[in-house]
């Protein structure tokens, strides 16, 4: 058998190089048309997905803002009641990630994503009317059930419109919605703090009611705002659709997995990349949830009043947004992922060490540590998501891998919900120590992923995987195809 040259190395460089040649007027026109097509996809795809992810993250974490506005006292929450209300969200959220992404493959993304947005918005509104801790827990369970499909569904949809080295920037734009949700939630909570007593409701209730109503309205709009798959997207003309599908085919080459039969299911189940990517995400997502759930409380216990604590969360998330987008731009530009995951982990590590030594530090330094923790985490978190997506090829494999990574990975959120104990305030030694350990786990998983992917690419360069082309499912190998090269 002839040696297979790495024509498809790093997501269709052969096609990119051809597009960059400018010897003929026709090629220049093609390049301009491609740029125009990408801009059109960006404007139609990214804004609605950013909007619903922004709302989903705000609605799952606004309980942190409600807490310091009097929720725990009004609902007579004691001991671990607050922690329980946090972690019950993750039970249905983890369980229903994969089923949700199998559903979205079979029906239109616009219908599925808009429907679950409306339903979790209703759940959020319900939290504003509960009169007991049990009622709050029930609403949080429903919230986790309906939100389960958002992140994996959106990541899956983004990955089906762009080539691999165009994904990270878009993924980070999408992910910035979570960061900005933290800032906006603090700003909104600060404003809503003045509504105490309006209509006979406490200000913390208005946080849930108003933010839930906003979610319901946007969810209805998204039925016509979110585009469907590239093959059926209404915003594309026939020529644009043909160009987009051609670009995607050049990116994946023969590495397709468009049929989920028994052999394909076994390949997915045995794929070590999915497990390492999930462990990495579990380690870093803990950091994001720890910040969102507890930063308002941490600031409050630094001596800031509730309103001042809410407003001081905003600069933390603004800086994190800048770091997130800057690292994403460089990661795509350099066509590299691993170093950026370690960079974010290193920054966050310094922040946790500072907080663990906070007894000898001023309030200003402790506040600065929050910038490091949140900013470092959001350098790494979207890169981990984009990196695993880059290593997958085929509709079903991308769908399942995204759902598993986000679903199982959110065990990190479950951990974050249960390690910040009121009795340890304001030092939270357990919370900071466990969070530091979790990002160390992320670093180990990312390092293993980098080493193993590099080794696998070298094996394919030597032709050691060419035998797969003789197997019965050679047409449905996905990224197991010997011509595919992995992003490192």
TrEMBL record:
Record's keyword annotation contains Transport: yes
Membrane topology: Multi-pass membrane protein
Entry-linked Gene3D superfamilies: MFS general substrate transporter like domains (1.20.1250.20)
Keywords, alphabetical: Membrane, Transmembrane, Transmembrane helix, Transport
Main location: membrane
Chain ranges passing through the membrane: 84-104, 111-129, 135-159, 171-192, 204-226, 272-294, 314-331, 338-355, 367-388, 400-420, 432-453
Region listing for Disordered, in residue ranges: 462-488
Subcellular location: Membrane
Ranges where the Major facilitator superfamily (MFS) profile domain occurs: 45-458
GO MF annotation terms: transmembrane transporter activity
GO CC, alphabetical: membrane
Presence of the UniProt keyword Membrane in the record: yes
PROSITE patterns: MFS
Protein name as it appears in the record: Major facilitator superfamily domain-containing protein
Organism (species): Microdochium trichocladiopsis
